[in-house]
């Protein structure tokens, strides 16, 4: 793939430390492991568009557009709120029976210690196999403020967008997933079978952090290992029609740090007490505050010794991808800040350094704090416990175990062995190369549809894709055309018929992308890797 | 009054600093201003019992016990929850009309910017005047768990206690206050008038922190200034029948410290954002934690420079009172710790030092902490604001203004000028001398009823009694026999007929105490102060 050089720009990371001090926090240096050594930049425009065309399959999609839309609506009208255990069993069976109807030979609802998974194997007699990851659960309807019944599957005309399907799950993730199955249906109707064997492996707990997905994977592990890649149907176009790609996700360590009254460091153990007793009793709240304060510097930079030691230097591929990514983002820095409601990047870093941290650096974030009285006005108590919810995003080669051990060690070294640290969740990061056949296939299909997607080597968010990349050793990618929004908010939607002039793909074009992708991946697997 | 010497005990405060370090936090030294220089101890047994007796008045109380109990029930059946504005107007009028019926010449419901006050003036044609402070509001019924309707005014047999009146306000504070008025009623019925003029000055916002009581005082300030003291009817006997006295209260400064996303120190300003953005955005939660951490040492001792500078050394009287108080408490240290659910005093201090802090030292207490997600399980957000509710108890000569200024200055000096500090409430401490005629009168009446109450120069709690001691320049005391509990909890009660063998005063004996007190105070005002 073509590499372009990014324009030379003086890097403040190269300034003498003294000058950086003079400049102050307006230009804070990034943490040490993020130093990079190439200016080469990846450009997705250099990739040749996929040349395949399947007019007989496309024709089926055009003919069946109403039936296919009705499939999406049928899925959206079945509530499946994992957090509230609402409609979960029904949705799992609906997905399984749809797979059966589509010609999947083996299908099963897969019991777990939590909500069940769904398995389906489509035997196309092909040499290669694609695993399709799906999630059949959705967020709760809350927060309220919906224009329509969140489970009515209604079509709504939205100015500037076109005709959208507005329902919980419309874009996250039922819409894209059923669109993918519509594409498969059209292939089967037109050509008898898809060019690859398919394994659908779905879970009903994605919105809960996928606690039991490893159990589902374990059940089929031998068969899954023989597959060639994992794909997650996802609408990636923004409102303006720009699609994007990402090749990796961060891992996470999610902890609760709790200080409680105890025999060693004191404080009330049974219940809150009157606030005046602070004169003679120890305070778990102050203990928590003091313990937390040792974890960062006054300006919020991680202060746990060795916390970044496991972070490997960005690879040459990652650097090229990142350089390409930042080139595309320079123009709209103000817009990016406005989108998150902030006036500056962390500690005044430049856009490039902030973006580098998002891709390559770990974090230590307070998600929540709670102790004692949190209502309006005056109430004087000395709380007997104080809790912080803290997460850390992990990049290669960090692991949740090692990160947790470093935090524990640091707290102990500072005399805070009375602070309980509970791991609520944890998994490592996941990564796929841009050189993998799956990546090349997805990108070439984007190119066919006129897209030059920015390709992030990694997003700042976390997902347990390590089960694919690490447990199964497979490339894993999410992608697709289409635009939706409101995933965890009211009025979630996915565009069905875009407004005139829009660059957003409608339902049929989104389905065509998935048709092409199956053929493109089958072709890419035939070619030698570059 | 007789002074006794407390037994000599080696004071760890006198140990060399190096040895204290070796001993470590198991015996932390008290803050510097608390050093004392006398071993003399006040003994309330040295005070002569009040010699007065009013059998004609007592007889009325015995005769009218059912009607008088019915008065308490009538008050308790009228809800008056200030926090919920429930029954406030009705209770204010009920109190006013009761005062009128009792012979108060002038009565008024007093409008304020909040709930109204109630004023009543009883002109006995006497030389001296006693102000009776009352609060007619009660706490909400919550938390639930009541055995009876909280506003039914029911009599309940409680094993070990006897027959109790169980209702919200039974002991805090309607029961004792109406018992006081029953005592006045008996005096008027038997003797035509009380030995003192009386001013009842009540508020309906005590449970809200008395925000508008100064307005009520201001309205009658000239008349109030000419009074001789202020009395607050209060059942002070514990379950075993031991009464207690206190001569002062701490002041308070109640603050909210808030960190919010802002243009200078960054962070999301509009709403929480995704937790993964911690890689590139500043965190108001970390700012708050770091700012709070500068206010104390790692083990929770106040670290604000100069914060104790305004604290005056305990006076000789305060020291004698304190020494007497501690003598009486030595035996049951384990019980005291158990009562608050703690295994040790603050930083391992000895009982005496912990008790000294409760009486003489200021505090800095976290009442509440809140930021972001505080529910169960995993949710990853970067909150755009974080809030701490902090109170500081103030002792002479601290003021809320000075304390707040020191905290602000310290935050600014440490670079935390982005932390907003809001004062929600603040008032100075209040103090009455044991030598005041009111104190001598109350103590002598306790002695008449066989009590040798421990006398605290000050309690650890706060009340805005400065309006009496400072604004009006009057002695102020709370006191009385009787036992009740559950003031801010379910099943609040006051004992009406104690169980056989109990040392707790029943309703009639409690009323006799108030009869005696009025005469004792009138007498004490005739005697020269010692």
Automatic annotation (TrEMBL), chains A, B:
Outline the extent of the Peptidase M20 dimerisation domain: 272-414
What are this entry's molecular-function GO terms? metal ion binding; peptidase activity
- Keywords, ordered alphabetically: Hydrolase, Metal-binding, Protease, Signal
Which residue positions does the secretion signal occupy? 1-28
**UniProt-listed GO biological process terms:** proteolysis
InterPro entries xrefs = Cyt/Met_Dipeptidase (IPR051458), Peptidase_M20 (IPR002933), Peptidase_M20_dimer (IPR011650)
Which protein is depicted?
Answer: M20/M25/M40 family metallo-hydrolase
């Amino acid at each position: 793939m073509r590499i372009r050089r990014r324009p030379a720009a003086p890097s403040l990371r190269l300034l003498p430390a003294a000058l950086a001090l003079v400049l102050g926090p307006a230009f804070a240096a990034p943490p040490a492991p993020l130093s990079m050594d190439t200016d080469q930049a990846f450009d997705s425009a250099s990739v040749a568009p996929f040349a395949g065309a399947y007019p007989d399959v496309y024709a089926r999609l055009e003919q069946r557009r109403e039936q296919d839309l009705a499939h999406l609506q049928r899925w959206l009208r079945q509530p499946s709120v994992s957090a509230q255990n609402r409609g979960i069993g029904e949705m799992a069976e609906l997905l399984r029976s749809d797979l059966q109807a589509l010609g999947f030979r083996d299908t099963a609802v897969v019991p777990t210690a939590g909500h069940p998974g769904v398995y389906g194997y489509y035997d196309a007699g092909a040499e290669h196999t694609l695993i399709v990851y799906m999630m059949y659960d959705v967020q709760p309807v809350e927060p309220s403020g919906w224009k329509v019944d969140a489970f009515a599957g209604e079509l709504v005309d939205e100015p500037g967008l076109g005709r959208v399907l507005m329902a919980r799950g419309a874009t996250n993730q039922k819409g894209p997933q059923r669109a993918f199955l519509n594409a498969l249906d059209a292939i089967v109707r037109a050509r008898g079978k898809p060019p690859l064997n398919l394994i659908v492996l779905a879970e009903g707990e994605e919105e809960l952090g996928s606690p039991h997905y490893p159990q589902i994977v374990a059940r089929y592990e031998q068969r899954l290992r023989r597959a060639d890649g994992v794909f997650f149907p996802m609408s990636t176009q923004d409102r303006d029609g720009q699609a994007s790609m990402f090749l990796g996700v961060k891992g996470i360590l999610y902890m609760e740090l709790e200080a409680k009254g105890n025999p060693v460091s004191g404080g009330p153990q049974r219940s809150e007490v009157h606030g005046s007793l602070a004169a003679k009793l120890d305070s778990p709240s102050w203990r928590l505050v003091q313990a937390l304060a040792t974890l960062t510097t006054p300006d919020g930079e991680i202060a746990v010794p060795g916390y970044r030691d496991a972070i490997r230097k960005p690879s040459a591929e990652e650097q090229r991808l990142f350089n390409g990514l930042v080139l595309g983002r320079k123009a709209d820095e103000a817009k990016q800040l406005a989108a998150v409601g902030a006036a500056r990047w962390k500690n005044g870093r430049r856009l490039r350094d902030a973006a580098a941290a998002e891709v390559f650096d770990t974090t230590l974030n307070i998600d929540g704090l709670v102790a004692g009285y949190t209502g309006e006005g005056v109430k004087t108590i000395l709380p007997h416990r104080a809790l912080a919810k803290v997460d850390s995003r992990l990049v290669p080669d960090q692991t949740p175990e090692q990160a947790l051990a470093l935090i524990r060690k640091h707290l102990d070294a500072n005399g805070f062995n009375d602070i309980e640290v509970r791991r609520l969740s944890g998994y490592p990061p996941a990564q796929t190369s841009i050189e993998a056949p799956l990546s090349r296939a997805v990108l070439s299909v984007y190119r066919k549809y006129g897209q030059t997607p920015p390709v992030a080597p990694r997003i700042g968010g976390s997902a347990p894709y390590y089960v694919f990349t690490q447990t199964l050793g497979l490339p894993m990618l999410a992608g697709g055309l289409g635009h939706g929004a409101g995933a965890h908010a009211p009025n979630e939607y996915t565009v069905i018929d875009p407004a005139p002039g829009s660059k957003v793909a409608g339902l049929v074009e989104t389905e065509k992308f998935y048709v092409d992708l199956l053929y493109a991946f089958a072709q890419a697997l035939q070619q030698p890797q570059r």
